[in-house]
Each structure stands twice: as structure tokens, then as C-alpha cells.
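Q: Could you fold this chain for me?
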Amino acid sequence: MQDVRVNNWAELNHELYESTWNADIRRFRSNFVYRGMSDASDDLRTSLTNLGGNTREVEFHILRNFKKYARRDEVHENSVWNWLAVAQHHGVPTRLLDWSYSPYVALHFATSNLAAYDRDGVIWAVDYVQAHQYLPKKLRAVLTEERSNAFTVEMLEGAMSSLPELEKLSGDDFVVFLEPPSLDQRIVNQFSIFSLMSRPDARFDCWLEKEHPELARRIIIPAELKWEARDKLDQANITERVLFPGLDGLARWLKRHYTPRE
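A: Sure. Below is the predicted structure, expressed as C-alpha cells.
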């Protein structure tokens, strides 16, 4: 897996859009999804994995109780994939990881935590189209039939209706990229997409490093570049006020925006 350390804003922009030219249609059409993190030393553990314990059992009980206590008007389709997406969206520990089609949204999350400005940030860029070439045959057939590069809740539900079914499709680990339904404006504005591994305790970064390092690269953002990147994102209107619509997002933006640089 390639690490690319940029030195300035121009290099950063170049790397964010590297390998996104589609010669067949003569347009820039990226096959990558992006995840920004404020600390380059962080890995891709899910919130479920971070809980510890028997991940499979914990996942079962969390989802069961979430479905039991959640308001029914919050989830319009009784599908495990829809429940997973809603749970992740509201901060419930799941096997999902948040990604964005937008490199600038990823850059926002790599630079939004002012407390981490003493350390390098990172943006993971993963070729999700190529990653789906390693799916079991049944799932590849769904994408081919739909002429799609990623799954929707409805597409996955048509192929299988439970997490155990997903795991039984193959003896090898694999990753699925799932576009969540437009639950609210936050999902839409963040240009969101989720990844999920076939096993609840499987690590996406370990799978990439050991099996398919060619699918990913990490863009390292030096600590000293974060202020410039942050200020330019603010000028481009990539802020909490836009990505988290509502008073909470507005408050977060105002607090960060008016924090003096030390």
C-alpha cells in the first residue's frame, strides 16, 4: 500500500485527483472513495471492533436492541442493510466505515480537529470499483445486472437478507461498498458511502495490506500544512455548517472558525 506525503497545497490537490481521468469518456470520473482522519497513525478499525469482546455476539445484540427501541418512522424499510445504515448514521457501533466520494469532504475530516494539529493527518483513497472485482460471484452478478459500481440497500436485500448469509458466500474475506439511502441532508451533503467487511471482526486495512495493497494509497498531510488546507476549505464552503446541517453543525463551525491559531 502506497504512502504519499505531500509538501504543499498544490501537491495535495494533485494527489486528491490522481488517477481520476476516464479516457473512454474523456471526463474526470473517479473510481475512488476517500476517508479523512486527523491522525495518520490511526487504522481502519470500525466502531464495533473498538468495543472489544466477542464482536459477532456484540453486533447481534446491538442490532437487535436498536431495532427494538428505535422509532419506526425512522426506518422505512425492514432490511438489515437499511437498519445498519441508520444505526451507523446515528453513532451506533457497527461494522460499517464512513467514506465519501468527495476528496474535499475527506480533507475536511482530516483537518476539522484542531486538537490534532500537532500531528500528521491522512486521507485514505480506495479504488472501490476494483475492490468489487473480488466479490463472490453472486454479488458481482448483481452489480453487473444493475450496471452499477456500488450497492444500494435494495440491491443487497435482493441478493441476501442477513449478515450470516453474507459471510457464507465465501471462505475468503471481501468488502462491500454500500450507498446509504438519503436519510437526511447530512448524508447527501457528505456524499456518503459505507464499506462493510464480510466478517464483523475483519479489518479492512489488514485485508488491503495483506491481500490487495494495489487498491489503496494513503495521502499524508503534514501537520504544518493543516492550517492552510483548513482555511482554504473554509473559503470553499466545505465546513461543518454545510456537512452537518442544523444548529449543531453551525455551532461546531463557529467554534472552530473563531479559535485563534497558536
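A (continued): The first strand starts at residue 2 and ends at 5.
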